């Protein structure tokens, strides 16, 4: 029987070999596919198994993981001042995450390759792996001031403030907002129901309006038109005069462009400075017609439009509009027609002018430190583009200061500080009241902050002068004061 | 004079010290794993570690002493191998109990392990010569059949748990008679085949290079086949049915040296499986699920879908090459991970590395059994040892292959690891029988009277 016994032994060997090969296929070859399967609930528990890093703003913790009693979900996500920072931190739900929680996810949960060294050390010292901490550029005082001021207006809107010299985002507020705590629980049913309610809400509380929404910029865009006009001929300055009729007939159409409320603009022949102070439409329409689509488009691109920007959340594309006829250029030059800007893009325009014409790349993440406090990565300010020459920037700055001191934006004045700004009132197309805009930087001679404010349907429909100044400028003033410690 | 010229047969060593050292190592490994679970879950060495460790060590020491006294020539590797496998099963069950998995009970399992070791010792003590089993061939057969049939005859309230009608439940106490039937039937097969092998080996017609047996000799195969089908039909126990039939065919082949029996067996099995697939939905579904376990259609099915097998595969995938570490994975997400799916639970926490080691342990155990069979001196021992070793390997193949989706999933216990007293006891008895046969196979034969003139030397 030995012959057959040996064959039976070989059969047993083959069975074990098959089992071993199969296990190798499963655990080495197919391991990633299997463990990553969306039905594998381990991923769900794993989200709560490690201590996720903190998100910090100016020394203040705005998101952190705290240990719980539960064995299944060891750490829960907490957001002190949840609503205030909602659009910065984002949420951390059972199956997804948003904003910083999303874009910095692999650092926060410790899986990033940048943390390999830390993980290796932890492996040897036997310490549990913790995620890295993310420090954002937000200035808590400015954030709070912007949030409170915008909330007091009772409207939807957005405020975004930048450090013009670095591009660091100092405030990022979008209203209405939501409570990320509600979306960061471990109970899937509860979280998903709440998410659906928020997602379907017409007021779009989940939308970060500073970067996720584009609006017609209205008169705030006139600084770009002015920039292009000054760049076009360096002999032009604030005191150069330009025609400012009550109505500007648009070529090849039988309509004409009026000033706001059909008002006259000075004597019909005004200085550039006066045109900007009063925010007259006709001189800027004329500048647009004179420059043409290509030069206008080129100037917008120099301010960063058309570039894919991530802060690290990706920013919606701002756009001057498609090339159409001359009438369209005139309309777009005063910030209407198909001209669409994100509030961040408008803030970048103000910042670029304040920073001698150089636009810095906006960023939200200042520093990454591992759980032990050692720096992993630090933001380095980067130039995005040279929008205008320093001379042009100086002229624009002078005119924008005049807008605040003598023009439509006197409500943005801060005692003892030269504030540069430009108001805007943008018709949104539907019958709702127009949006109120304000862009600004201060102090004008050495700016520390640049910002854009939009209050949706915030301009009263009373036919007064450009009313962006009325609702948006005071909000800007609050933020300026917070940053400048006034 | 040719006998004199032959080189002296090397004496197999007893290797008792080596066995003791390996046994100690096995206990240390298990205690280490146990401490590891406690450290991972509560950051402290479990309070019961010393008690459990000393308990396990003490038990194995008893097993060792009985073995050393009553089967001194037995293979030194068998007991340490079983100790490690049994101990790892215990640790895994303890770990799942710590995760509050309903049904997992380490205290129960360690109690059954103790009873198992007692059964091991008792078997060694009672069966001093395994050849006595040959005289009990038909008794064993009858016992096996009765044990197998009891759950089918009993009302479902006393015999059915989770759809499988394989239990006897009296009060809070339940046993799976099929586990013991398995042993009795292997003894019966061995005795029967040794007696009939000459007849069964007779060739009938030759067809395509294969000698077909005579039609009238097909009887035993058909009876076993029918028996397996009955188990399948009345107890819904695909695993045991496949286990018994496969073992019978293997033993038939070993006894008769006829490949044709294997072919007939495979054909009968295929036919039976096909029939069963046609008649019973759940058998046919098993096959479909095996082919495509990840399809949502099967995954989302309430009963009899692929949810279980996919959880097992997810666990294995999560384990990867090195595993999550004991106490650091989520094996409690795998249904029945303390019994049928314990292999997947080990795979998640100890990874590919741990599973390869575990399979190697089983393979070594089977190999030691087959070696015993090769070394055995008379046909009954050869066939019994061969059959017992094969059934062990075959059972590991069916259940591990099932939970890793190598073959369609059928419920069987993973020998020595799955929670459950009956299987543990039966397998410890199986090991005792192997040890008994190994002892007699390795024992040096009584020295022949040497041709040294008139002097007669007696070997004691």
UniProtKB/TrEMBL annotation, chain A:
SUPFAM superfamilies: beta-lactamase/transpeptidase-like. It comes from the Bacteria. Transmembrane segments: none annotated. Residues 52-134 form the Penicillin binding protein A dimerisation domain. Residues 157-481 form the Penicillin-binding protein transpeptidase domain. One of its GO terms (molecular function) is peptidoglycan L,D-transpeptidase activity. InterPro entries: Beta-lactam/transpept, Beta-lactam/transpept-like, PBPA_dimer, PCN-bd_Tpept. Gene3D superfamilies: DD-peptidase/beta-lactamase superfamily, Penicillin-binding protein 2a (Domain 2). One of its GO terms (biological process) is cell wall organization. GO terms for cellular component: plasma membrane. PANTHER family: PENICILLIN-BINDING PROTEIN 4B, PEPTIDOGLYCAN D,D-TRANSPEPTIDASE. This is Penicillin-binding protein 2. The lineage of its organism: Bacteria, Bacillati, Actinomycetota, Actinomycetes, Streptosporangiales.
């Amino acid at each position: 029987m030995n012959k057959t016994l040996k064959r039976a032994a070989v059969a047993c060997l083959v069975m074990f070999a098959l089992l071993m090969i199969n296990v190798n296929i499963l655990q080495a070859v197919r391991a990633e596919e299997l463990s990553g399967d969306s039905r594998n609930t381990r991923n769900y528990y794993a989200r709560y198994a490690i201590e996720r890093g903190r998100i910090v703003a100016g020394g203040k913790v705005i998101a952190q993981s705290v240990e719980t009693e539960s064995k299944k979900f060891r750490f829960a996500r907490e957001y002190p001042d949840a609503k205030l920072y909602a659009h910065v931190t984002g949420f951390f739900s059972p199956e997804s995450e948003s904003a910083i929680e999303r874009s910095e996810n692999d650092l926060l949960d410790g899986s990033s390759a940048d943390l390999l060294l830390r993980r290796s050390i932890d492996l040897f010292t036997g310490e549990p792996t913790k995620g890295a901490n993310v420090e954002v550029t937000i200035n808590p005082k400015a954030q709070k001031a912007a949030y409170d001021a915008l909330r007091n207006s009772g409207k939807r809107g957005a405020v975004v403030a930048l450090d013009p010299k670095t591009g660091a985002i100092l405030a990022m507020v979008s209203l209405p907002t939501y409570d990320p705590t509600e979306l960061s629980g471990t109970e899937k049913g509860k979280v998903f129901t709440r998410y659906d309610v928020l997602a379907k809400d017409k007021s779009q509380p989940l939308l970060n309006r500073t970067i996720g929404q584009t609006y017609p910029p209205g008169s705030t865009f006139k600084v770009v038109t002015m920039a292009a006009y000054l760049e076009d001929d360096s002999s032009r300055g604030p005191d150069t005069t330009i025609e400012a009729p009550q109505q500007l007939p648009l070529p090849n159409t039988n309509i004409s462009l009026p000033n706001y409320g059909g008002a006259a603009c000075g004597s019909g022949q005004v200085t550039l400075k006066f045109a900007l102070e009063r925010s007259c439409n006709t001189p800027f329409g004329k500048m647009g017609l004179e420059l043409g689509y290509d030069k206008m488009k080129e100037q917008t691109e120099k301010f960063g439009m058309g570039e894919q920007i991530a802060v690290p959340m990706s920013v919606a594309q701002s756009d001057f509009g498609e090339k159409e006829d001359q009438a369209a250029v005139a309309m777009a030059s005063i910030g209407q027609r198909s001209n669409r800007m994100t509030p961040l893009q408008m803030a970048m325009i103000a910042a670029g002018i304040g920073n001698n014409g150089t636009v810095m790349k906006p960023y939200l993440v200042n520093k990454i430190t591992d759980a032990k406090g050692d720096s992993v990565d630090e933001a380095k300010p980067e130039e995005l583009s040279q929008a205008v020459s320093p001379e042009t920037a100086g002229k624009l700055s002078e005119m924008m200061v005049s807008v605040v001191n003598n023009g439509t934006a006197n409500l943005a004045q801060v005692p003892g500080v030269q504030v540069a700004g430009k108001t805007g009132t943008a018709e949104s197309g539907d019958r709702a009241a127009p949006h109120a805009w304000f862009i600004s930087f201060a102090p004008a001679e050495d700016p520390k902050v640049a910002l854009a404010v939009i209050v949706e349907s915030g301009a009263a429909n009373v036919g007064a002068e450009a009313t962006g100044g009325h609702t948006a400028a005071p909000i800007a003033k609050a933020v300026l004061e917070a940053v400048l410690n006034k | 004079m040719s006998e004199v010229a032959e080189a002296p047969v090397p004496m197999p060593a007893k290797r008792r010290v080596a066995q003791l050292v390996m046994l100690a190592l096995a206990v240390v490994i298990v205690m280490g794993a146990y401490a590891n679970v406690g450290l991972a879950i509560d950051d402290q060495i479990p309070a019961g570690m010393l008690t459990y460790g000393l308990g396990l060590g003490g038990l194995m020491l008893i097993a060792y002493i009985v073995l050393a006294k009553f089967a001194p020539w037995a293979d030194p590797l068998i007991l340490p191998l079983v100790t490690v496998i049994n101990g790892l099963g215990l640790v895994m069950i303890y770990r799942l109990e710590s995760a509050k998995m309903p049904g997992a009970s380490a205290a129960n399992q360690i109690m059954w392990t103790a009873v198992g070791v007692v059964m091991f010792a008792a078997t060694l003590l009672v069966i001093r010569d395994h050849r006595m089993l040959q005289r009990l061939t038909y008794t064993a057969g009858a016992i096996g059949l009765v044990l197998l049939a009891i759950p089918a005859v009993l009302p479902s309230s006393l015999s059915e748990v989770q759809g499988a009608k394989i239990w006897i439940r009296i009060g809070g106490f339940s046993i799976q008679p099929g586990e013991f039937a398995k042993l009795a039937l292997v003894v019966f097969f061995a005795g029967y085949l040794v007696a009939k092998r000459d007849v069964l080996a007779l060739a009938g017609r030759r067809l395509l290079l294969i000698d077909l047996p005579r039609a009238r000799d097909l009887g035993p195969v058909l009876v076993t086949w029918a028996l397996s089908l009955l188990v399948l039909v009345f107890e819904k126990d695909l695993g045991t049915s496949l286990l018994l039939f496969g073992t019978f065919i293997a033993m038939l082949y070993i006894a008769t040296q006829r490949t044709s029996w294997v072919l007939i067996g495979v054909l009968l099995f295929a036919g039976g499986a096909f029939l069963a697939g046609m008649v019973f939905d759940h058998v046919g579904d098993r096959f479909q699920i095996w082919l495509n376990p990840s399809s949502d259609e099967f995954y989302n099915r309430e009963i009899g879908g692929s949810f279980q097998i996919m959880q097992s595969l997810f666990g294995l995938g999560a384990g990867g090459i090195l595993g999550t570490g004991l106490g650091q994975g989520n094996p409690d997400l795998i249904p029945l991970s303390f019994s049928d799916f314990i292999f997947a639970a080990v795979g998640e926490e100890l990874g590919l590395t741990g599973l390869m080691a575990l399979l190697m342990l089983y393979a070594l155990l089977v190999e030691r059994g087959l070696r015993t069979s090769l070394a055995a001196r008379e046909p009954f021992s050869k066939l019994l040892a061969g059959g017992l070793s094969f059934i062990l390997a075959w059972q590991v193949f069916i259940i591990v292959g099932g939970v890793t989706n190598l073959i369609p999933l059928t419920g069987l216990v993973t020998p020595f690891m799955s929670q459950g007293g009956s299987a543990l006891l039966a397998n410890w008895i199986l090991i005792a029988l192997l040890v008994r046969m190994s002892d007699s196979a390795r024992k040096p034969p009584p020295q022949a009277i040497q041709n040294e003139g008139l002097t007669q030397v007696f070997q004691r």
